[in-house]
Amino acid sequence: MVWAAMVVMVMSTSSFQKVAIFGSTGSVGLNTIKVLQAQKEQYDVRVLTANSNVGLLAAQAKELDAAYAVIADETKYEELKQALAGTDVTPMAGQEALLEAASMEADWTMAAIVGMAGLAPLMKSIEQGKIVAIANKEPLVAAGPLVMEAARQSGAMLLPVDSEHNAVFQVFEPENKKAVERIILTASGGPFRDATFEEMEKATPEQALAHPNWEMGAKISVDSATMMNKALEVIEAQRLFDLRPSQIEVLVHPQSLVHAMVEYSDGSILAQMGAADMCTPITNALGWPERLKTPGERLDLAKMSHLEFRPVDLERFPSVTLAYECLEEGLHACIALNAANEVAVEAFLSHKIAFLDIYHTVSEILRSAVPERLESLDDIISYDKLIRARAKSAMVENNFQQTGT
Ligand SMILES: NC(=O)c1ccc[n+]([C@@H]2O[C@H](COP(=O)([O-])OP(=O)(O)OC[C@H]3O[C@@H](n4cnc5c(N)ncnc54)[C@H](OP(=O)(O)O)[C@@H]3O)[C@@H](O)[C@H]2O)c1
């Protein structure tokens, strides 16, 4: 990331105002709106998008006086149009509309769609060369080299919003990059941090969704429970900070108060701390390079009795190892990891497969994935589709089933 050049550019402009939120109806989207509403500055919300939640999208668009409300599911267009009748908000629908919205003028864009569905609009936003706050980690995992190259070419600034990556961003000294020995991403360990294999074998979606520290969307909550989220984050960190995989470590930190650390050659470890509240990284990204006031929770250090750090139990959470294997293997493996995981998580949430079958499916798909020529976005999208089809067949062939439902 070209921090210095962008700092000068942002500080010298007074029109840092037009905002677009992709995925405004989700957990990150809602927190982004909360952060925007808490600021005294006048943000002009131009674009809000959702997949199918017409009611919430229309309510947000009216409340924020947005210019455009985009629903990805085309069949919901009439419903959205009716919900916005009599307002100045223009309804739009479908994939092309998402891309059109991403091409519109915006000074600050939040990329908070979940999964690979966010890739195409993210790329369009980046091509505009503006500031893109990025929560949507899956495109970085599966198309990281293209995403980063597009940002380099357009001059777009990617601001990490994932709490660990935002934490690294805050304590990473780009001018001292050579002195960075490692970064440490912390992991809460999720709802099954101390669970046995037997307990995880029987885990239900409801149990997996009950994260002890964070309130998040369904997919990332399940990823936290399998710790696949940390695997995705290791790859995400490699893309964003351009480090060797061996420089990226993960430690379990049950309190979720230290979000990440950077260790320098002089032995200093710089850590970023904050409440387990996405308002902090979002406020950081919205205000960057200045600092705004968060409407979120604060950390009360006097109430903290201890901070605990321990290595990940890779026997119970083998997903974390897959990240390093995939980075070693190459882009095809990263796409396969992400695509198979998205499909398996969806199947688990629909009560079709058991919790541990998420890992079984992903690792089986990875074993059969061979290097491919993946040079363009279309190559990546086609390969992603192929892997999704393979993962679906594998789950059927293996006759995976969720018990007790
Ligand atoms: N939640 C967190 O605290 C957190 C923290 C760090 C990183 N992240 C990352 O941020 C991203 C969003 O997470 P989240 O927890 O906010 O997810 P979420 O609550 O499930 O929200 C996802 C958003 O994306 C929209 N969406 C879903 N599928 C779509 C599609 N096919 N096309 C267009 N839009 C679609 C949803 O619209 P509908 O509401 O209409 O379905 C919703 O607005 C993920 O990549 C996640 O890993 C999240």
Keyword list:
single chain; five-stranded mixed beta sheet; 12 strands; Rna Polymerase Sigma Factor, Chain: A; 15% strand; 405 residues; alpha/beta; seven-stranded parallel beta sheet; Rossmann fold; globular; binds NADP nicotinamide-adenine-dinucleotide phosphate; 17 helices
Please provide a brief summary of the model.
The protein has helices at 3-11, 27-38, 54-64, 77-83, 95-103, 119-127, 137-154, 163-171, 197-201, 205-209, 218-226, 228-241, 279-287, 319-329, 331-349, 356-368, 377-397; strands at 18-22, 44-50, 68-71, 90-93, 108-111, 131-134, 157-160, 180-187, 248-252, 258-264, 269-273, 310-311. It is an alpha/beta fold. The strands form two sheets. Strands 4-3-2-1-5-6-7 form a seven-stranded parallel sheet, with helices on both faces.
What does this structure look like?
This protein has 405 residues and is an alpha/beta fold. It folds into two domains: 9-160, Rossmann fold (3-Layer(aba) Sandwich); 166-276 and 297-397, RNA polymerase sigma factor, region 2, helix turn helix motif (Rna Polymerase Sigma Factor, Chain: A). 47% of the residues lie in helices and 15% in strands. It is built from 17 helices and twelve strands. The protein has helices at 3-11, 27-38, 54-64, 77-83, 95-103, 119-127, 137-154, 163-171, 197-201, 205-209, 218-226, 228-241, 279-287, 319-329, 331-349, 356-368, 377-397, and strands at residues 18-22, 44-50, 68-71, 90-93, 108-111, 131-134, 157-160, 180-187, 248-252, 258-264, 269-273, 310-311. The strands form two sheets. A seven-stranded parallel beta sheet has the order 4-3-2-1-5-6-7, sandwiched between helices. Strand 2, helix 3 (54-64) and strand 3 form a beta-alpha-beta unit. The longest helix is centred in the C-terminal third of the chain and has 21 residues, at 377-397. It is globular, with a radius of gyration of 21 Å. Residues 4-14 have low confidence and may be disordered. The structure holds NADP nicotinamide-adenine-dinucleotide phosphate.
